[in-house]
Write a structure and sequence with these properties.
Elements lengths: L7 E2 L17 H4 L12 E6 L3 H5 L9 H9 L11 E7 L5 H17 L3 E6 L5 H12 L4 E6 L16 H7 L8 E6 L6 H10 L2 E4 H5 L6 H12 L6 E7 L21 H13 L3 E7 L10 H15 L2
Amino acid sequence: MTNIFKLTSRPDEALFYSRGDKNDPRMGDVVRRDPKYYETADIVILGCPQDEGVRRNNGRAGAADAPKKIREQFYKLTSFNVKKRIFDLGDVVIGSTLEETHDTHLDVVKQILADGKRLIVLGGGNDVSYPDGRAMSEVFGADSWLAVNVDAHLDVRIAEERNSGTPYRQLLEENLLRPNAFYEVGFQTHFCSPIYYDYIRDLGVHRVSLELLRSRFGADDELREQIKQNFINHSSSVSTFFGFDLDAVRSSDAPGVSAPSPLGLRAGEFIQIVKYAASLANTKLVEFSEVNPRFDIDDRTTKLVAIGMHRVCTGT
């Protein structure tokens, strides 16, 4: 069994906000962090505070600060409708290389999933989807999980070194993820190479562009219908993974990201899809990445992710 406490650092106690008012409990009052509470937890929070993959992909640095800044906002929220037992494991120990960090992260995530917990991962760069996805494949089986990448980009780049644009290419080409169990959601065609688009199309990856999301009454309707149809052809044991890259949200609502855009999901649409992810009983891992607090305004982006985390914790 992996000793996840040796591979992680405990969260900063100063982040756990409290008003000291029993009539107004906050998430900082109810989320546990003493290791003795891990075994009984339903949901575990794990940070991966690095942005080496973003740097390698020529993005703007700063995502390494995200787990701490997101926690600051999350622990100020109230415990309204939170019935699950939540445990904050802290942050993965960062290695001397991105590959070393991914290996450590993989070991920790595998153990948490094997222990039957639902996991919230806070990046860091979107390259974290590779160890997260690999953990899903190794714990549940390559034929028994679905991956949903909510992102303005496809993240199937060819590169000499892994980076924030390569995670799903790695998962597909290493046969850790079946193409027909992979959903690219919210991508914007003006940001997507036609070569890479043809690659996922020819493989049979499900494609739900920003325009297609907007064509339905609700932002999650198209995704909901496509996943429903895919579940019909699989057993009820199929596990799901949702990766939420904040680049998918328009910059007026989420200015603090690695690659901002004036177009994208509205904040409410983003939360609607997060709520859908939380509503699925078989969702095992929800990942938030590419938040860059250095460019945030009024903490809009970190607050948005914090609210998304809250929806995962409530399941509503």
